[in-house]
Amino acid sequence: MNERLLLRLEIDELNAGYAAALDERRFDDWPGFFLPEGLYKLQARENFDRGLPLALIALEGQGMMKDRVYGITQTIYHGPYYTRHVVGPAQVLGEGSEGRVRAQAHYAVFRTRPGDASEVYNVGRYIDEIECTPAGLKLASRLCVYDSEMVLNSLIYPI
Amino acid sequence: MNERLLLRLEIDELNAGYAAALDERRFDDWPGFFLPEGLYKLQARENFDRGLPLALIALEGQGMMKDRVYGITQTIYHGPYYTRHVVGPAQVLGEGSEGRVRAQAHYAVFRTRPGDASEVYNVGRYIDEIECTPAGLKLASRLCVYDSEMVLNSLIYPI
Amino acid sequence: MNERLLLRLEIDELNAGYAAALDERRFDDWPGFFLPEGLYKLQARENFDRGLPLALIALEGQGMMKDRVYGITQTIYHGPYYTRHVVGPAQVLGEGSEGRVRAQAHYAVFRTRPGDASEVYNVGRYIDEIECTPAGLKLASRLCVYDSEMVLNSLIYPI
């Protein structure tokens, strides 16, 4: 079978596991989808398209991610909400640095606040560099480029 | 090829067929996606997460499903609407009881009422037990856990 | 491996590339997803279901598509917006005319206007006839059947 298609299936699996962990609020599992020195960045499309550096959040390494998880679960005061990720099939873009794979996938995240209807929360795409490790595929970096510069309230949980 | 990935592809296919049948209003085909004694349950996440039993609807076996289809097509008086399911790639979770497969997938269902714009209707995840039969994959049980306890009007058609 | 599943993976790939080209505003790439004489049609479900011919837009061949791209990028005066396609796994329906493949996929397109939140824009399904060519899969025809007869403002960019 075609190597690229097989790889894509594994990336879909990574994305499904990632989405499930977040939506089921297993936040402690989230940093484990990255390499120890992995990068997570959340950036508005407007800035991304212009090559501007400003990002809403940028976490370098699992340490910063764990700190963020501590923040969202223990210290940040915010209105509670559920998220639901629906991620489309991934697209393998080619080879990245150090033998890594470059891939992307479109996502829609829906938000549900207690007693309220579900609504569109954040849509965009994941732009990833992925490494094949003995423990499976891991994100060397995930850049979430979201379409709307207008964020409903605030983005507490990872996208 | 990896067994699990192959299985996942077949589950995606099951989900796509299921979604197409509902959205194209071929409701009579719907019970056929289940085993004769299959279970369909629609439950708010709030109750599911707390382990509470209350479900919005629970149908045990194709007989009850056919009865429900009769209801929604012949007897229930309700405002008409279209549905559109967009289901993400499935995730194989492991082995269930009796050699069945446990899997889940995130879904978003959009509703369109005549003369109105499309809107987010119901988002959540399918939690399935699936059996491989000579006639293909069949749902031994499908539990639809939806995020919003607030339902727009009422849920007439299956999710 | 099952031929049909393999084909489906390639169709998913086609759809992901198609969506990425549109959402990244690489409109000049769009006609290249079709055969030179390919057909693109955008039709409300109401008309499609009744077998009525009226379509919102119908482009026959890459020439008309290029003209449309010229229109949307150079001449049509309209409020700017981003699109984001989330397309579910495709469903191979069978063999079409001339050895082509008939397939369909459900899609949701979200719109984001500057300074505004993302919103549901157009949901429906792609009904495709696809040809295997030396340059990969190409659309002999793509019929986009959308659920809402009520279009937010106007549909400028391809779906």
TrEMBL record, chains A, B, C:
Molecular function terms from GO: dioxygenase activity
Protein name listed in UniProt: Aromatic-ring-hydroxylating dioxygenase subunit beta
Any one Pfam family match given in the protein's UniProt record, by short name: SnoaL_4
Organism lineage string: Bacteria, Pseudomonadati, Pseudomonadota, Betaproteobacteria, Burkholderiales
CDD domains xref list: ring_hydroxylating_dioxygenases_beta
Family: Belongs to the bacterial ring-hydroxylating dioxygenase beta subunit family.
Keywords from the named record: Dioxygenase, Oxidoreductase
Record domain SnoaL-like: where: 3-142
